[in-house]
Amino acid sequence: MSTISPLDTGASRRTFLVGTAVAAAGLLTACSGGTSIGSDNGATDAGPSFSGGEYEGPKVTLEYWNGFTGGDGPHMQSMLRAFNKRHAGRIQVKNITRQWADLYPALPTAITAGKGPDVAVIHNDQIATFAARRTLVPLDDVVSALGLTESDFIPAVWQAGVYEGKRYGVPLDVHCLADYWNVRHLTKAGLDEAPKDRAGLEDTLRELKSAGVAHPFWMPNKWPAHLMFMTLLWQFGGELYDTEGTRALWGSGAGEEALSWMVRQIREGHSPRQVAQDAQYNAFKNNRVSSTWDGIWQINDLKETAKSISWAMSPVPVIGGTAAVWTAGHNFVLTSQAARDKNKVQAAKFFIDYMSERSTEWAQAGMIPARNTVRAAPEVARLPQTALARDVEVFRFLPTLPGLGDVQTAALELAVQKAVLGQKSPADALAEGVRTADKMLAENKQKYAK
């Protein structure tokens, strides 16, 4: 699965899933030859190395693309205004905001034509695909010059920016699933806090049904069902793919346990059947659902639009034996278009470091800052989502495999949907999905071969 911009609307989320498949096709047609600069072997040169400090070159204009079209957009624009005001004499950053579903397929073609971004923000699960097709250039010199290491960031998001031993992403944030609770419903069940484990959750759901809540925990068959499945898979000790990216492993016993637990919520009457797209979240906002698992990007939407409910947010309960939660992150990247101009390279690398280090404003958009120093700032530490990062070991990311978004959509997401809708048993749905995934992984090895 490819992630979406936090705080985007449900419609944007749906469109993004389609956009990932288009993006992969665009990469193959537009970037199969790479954007080689000063190299005889086809590898993209990142241009002059970055040594830190202020940008001292002639004035440049940087094209900056991102998909922050929702409630997160104003916070990014505020950060950009501050940067442009401070560096008006040297660097002007031109902000181009597009829906993620439009941005990803447009990126490689625009860069090849010299009409794309110099710097961009993309999701971690897109890094391998774009890096493999040489649409991006490495940023190892940036983190080296600034003395940045894994210890400065949440470890999982730091590792997610590396492909084939090179760093292509500088992390901005992490965003994960959370458990949203209706506080009044919790009170009906005699609780003052959300349950933390399987027994506590299942007991609470039974209490809520007895207290008159017809369906306290709706189970979607689409977004974010696959995020729930991956969370549960990891909690039950499973893995998504092998380290070589040649086999899907989510059809294991752990996968069957995870998907069976999801289906059981329908069979036990905690959820109605055939929950439509976004229906569980809308029902939560209308006091019909006691608990829903959704991304932290919903925080601001609940604050602004859910005036009739009292809600609280907590970590996703541990259903299996291991605490784990699906997580993704936004990363700053440098494109091969910028690498054609040594001054743009230096300016873009300076901009990336500046924005990453000063991401306090970004936390107000509902994000968890990736940098430890930003997360520790008093104005950030008191935000509700920061509490989810008290144990950063629970964060789990998709592996950095080129073309993985297509595999997730066509295989894993479809398997989850078929089981939740009752069209196949969890075991049969997973087995069918794994066959599709393995075939696509083999094809990707050829597509994205060096």
What low-confidence regions span 5 or more consecutive residues with pLDDT below 50?
Answer: 1-44
Radius of gyration: 22 Å
Number of helices: 18
CATH topology name of the largest domain, in short, is D-Maltodextrin-Binding Protein, domain 2
CATH class of the largest domain: Alpha Beta
Mean pLDDT: 87
Q: Into how many domains do the coordinates divide?
A: 2
Give the overall form.
globular
> What's the CATH architecture of the largest domain?
3-Layer(aba) Sandwich
Total strand segments: 14
For the record, what is the CATH homologous superfamily label of the largest domain? Periplasmic binding protein-like II
Coarse structural class: alpha+beta
- Which range does the strand content fall in? 5-15%
State the end-to-end CA separation: 24 Å
Helix content: 40-55%
Describe the largest sheet: 6 strands, mixed
Record the SSE blueprint.
Elements: H1 10-30, E1 60-66, H2 73-86, E2 91-97, H3 100-112, E3 119-123, H4 124-132, E4 136-137, H5 140-145, H6 155-159, E5 162-163, E6 166-167, E7 170-171, E8 173-182, H7 183-188, H8 198-210, H9 225-235, H10 253-267, H11 279-285, E9 291-295, H12 299-305, E10 311-314, E11 325-328, E12 330-335, H13 342-357, H14 360-363, E13 368-369, H15 372-375, H16 378-381, E14 395-396, H17 404-420, H18 426-447
Parallel strand pairs: 1-2, 1-3, 11-14
Antiparallel strand pairs: 3-12, 4-12, 5-6, 7-12, 8-9, 8-10, 8-11, 8-13
